[in-house]
Task: structure prediction
Amino acid sequence: MTSPATPGIAAGRLAPDTLAENFADLHAPYDAHEARVAADRCYFCHDAPCVTACPTDIDIPLFIRQISTGMPEAAAQTIFEQNILGGMCARVCPTETLCEQVCVRETAEGKPVEIGRLQRHATDTAMARQSHPFTRAAETGKRVAVVGAGPAGLACAHRLALKGHAVDVFDAKEKPGGLNEYGIASYKSTDDFAAREIDWLLQIGGITLHTGQTLGQTLELNQLAQDYDAVFLGIGLGAVNALTCDGNDRAGVMDAVDFIADLRQTRDLTTLPVGRNVVVIGGGMTAVDAAVQAKLLGAQNVTLAYRRGREQMGASRFEQDLAASKGVTILTNVMPVAIHGNGSAAQIELEYTTAESGTLTGTGETIRLPADQVFRAIGQTFAGIDGPELDRGKIKTTGAGRTTMPGVWAGGDCTAGEDLTVVAVSEGRDAAEDIHAALTQA
Amino acid sequence: MADLTTNFLGISSPNPFWLASAPPTDKEYNVRRAFEAGWGGVVWKTLGAEGPPVVNVNGPRYGAIYGADRRLLGLNNIELITDRPLETNLEEMARVKADYPDRALIASIMVPCDEASWKAILPRVAETGADGIELNFGCPHGMAERGMGSAVGQVPEYIEMVTRWCKQYYDKPVIVKLTPNITDIRMPAEAAKNGGADAVSLINTINSITSVDLDMMAPQPTIDGKGTHGGYCGPAVKPIAMNMVAEIARNPATHGLPISGIGGITTWRDAAEFMALGAGNVQVCTAAMTYGFKIVEEMKRGLSQWMDDKGYTKTSDFIGMAVPNVTDWQYLNLNYITKARISQDDCIKCGRCFAACEDTSHQAITMSEDRVFEVQDDECVACNLCVDVCPVDNCITMERVAPGEVDQRTGQVVPAEYGNWTTHPNNPMAKAAE
Result:
């Protein structure tokens, strides 16, 4: 029987019951009464700051008022009209840096209206009780290829299908969903929500899904551009930043995104191995997701090592606090210099840093931590593409996602802008509107 | 510590908080518990005439409307007077009064509108040792259909007649409980006074339908698919009740007539407000029905603390103090000019003041790109709506424009002297200054 103290990398550190509890919903859904009480706190602000802060411009005061008047399904409709992935966004949006950050009750009391949880109440209620809430327009005869079945691609495909276009969605992975399926911490998307949401979304009709199709391998952009009336690229980043330090290739060193994806795809978490002493390199959401989940899987010690100060961390304060509350140690102003071990990783050597006028330098002082598993989470990068021009490493777009290639649009993480689900949804949606306008021009 | 002892019509009670005649006072068990909890007095659930007691519906009796988090704001009922035998009630009243001589115990009575009925019941009530009686001329449902309750309270002549009978056949204080389901509360109050009433109590409940079941298409509470209007009470009726109390208090014909204030009293502050408007004591029902008897403790402590803060040593120090300040619209000072002032430090930028003013009032608040809200004095009529809709206490206040300064809206210098509509040049009925 393994335990958190079992040396090395091992599966089954925690009992199945404990694992189930650890990976349950991060925020339990509101029941109807809780939702009404929470909704009642909304002041129905004029020209509300939360709407301005929402990348998809959901009319938040309206949907909250609809909840408070006993109409969660109607509230969901208000949400879905702007954001067809409102269910997932309710779970994964960093609301603490978006709508809830600017909520006037945050200003007033330091306690915002819980917009994310209210959105989840509305969307869950609607998805549980009714079939797909939109009706597709008559077929236009136009065909659009969407590459990438992540949030941007799905939002784009849905909006295009809604308008009556026929959409083929291609994705390299086995399952659609992109980061919703492979990249989000398990406790944020329980009960296979990502897959259920896609099933529900596809009920609009007019969307054909093709998985296992990779651009540059089984698909060629030029061919797609020829075969279809328009193409939308929502292909995500696709590559991770490399870690340059000695011992980077030792067994036990891996990319955090792979760990997160493995975890999401593992049905029986008692079979998923995790280290006794885990160190995560990085300071963003991915780093926190990996660190927290390693801890929840039963790692005895988990350290998140970040090269700058806490204020510079990409993960929000909420995420940092979540990590701390789960027992993750956050070590700041340290950078990795070497991973030591005899074959497998055993220790990580970190050097303290100082930042002078923005430039990070090592102080020369180092510490060593036991580390049988090291996760790299130092950022992802766009893998590149042949065809459209790039700008600062991402696909260059103008207007609503128009690339430099005629007939080709792009959105989501492969283009400029914040790499957030909700941003991807808005870009996919807006590109769809632009494609529709282009295809229906006389 | 302020002395909460209240003398109402010569009836002394350790505090001004009485339980109104209603379900909480229907039997010995409840009333004993109420006294143990600290209530100053009780008006026993209304007694009917000798004979088979009334029956109540066997479906729901109450309907409610709620504020946030199911906070009960208004309650409606279709319950009738006591449905227990008269003898049982009388025996219990006698026992309770004997055991609690320092508390007020009032018998509420509703019998048919004939002299014999009243003559028959009054000596029986007197035997219980009750401190007085309250004539239920208020219940608007059920009994009113049988010519009692509000059916009497809506006819001043009947009020006067029955009151006179009671004064004739009963020698302790007679309180007349008034219905608000009339046009002018002063008329029934005057009638009660003319009949010799020692006091009036008000308000009884207001005719109401609280809600409609949209599936059954029937009013609630719904009894086998049908509903009927009930009597509305609770916090929502307090403003209506206070106006009626004040009307009686300031009417020259009834000024000085003792009033027992009833209507949505939930906290010490509600009680203090009723008393400031002339109520010698207060009666509570819905608050007790919502929270239990224990709430009286908050009321007692709160009133006592407030009295200490204000330097009042006994309730009579402040009873009626606000009455002289209740006036008619025509006497309000039209030269008193204020402007809304928004504290930018307190503003949380919700914009409700802007929406309210821009959409529904006088377009006197501007909103900048960065959500700074400012009052435009040249448009502000000082309506106070922005204050009322602002979710932050004291963020928006009304500030007086000092006499001698110019009102930016009218361009006129604010006069120092009082001036009202009766002498205003726009009033065709204005009397020219002699």
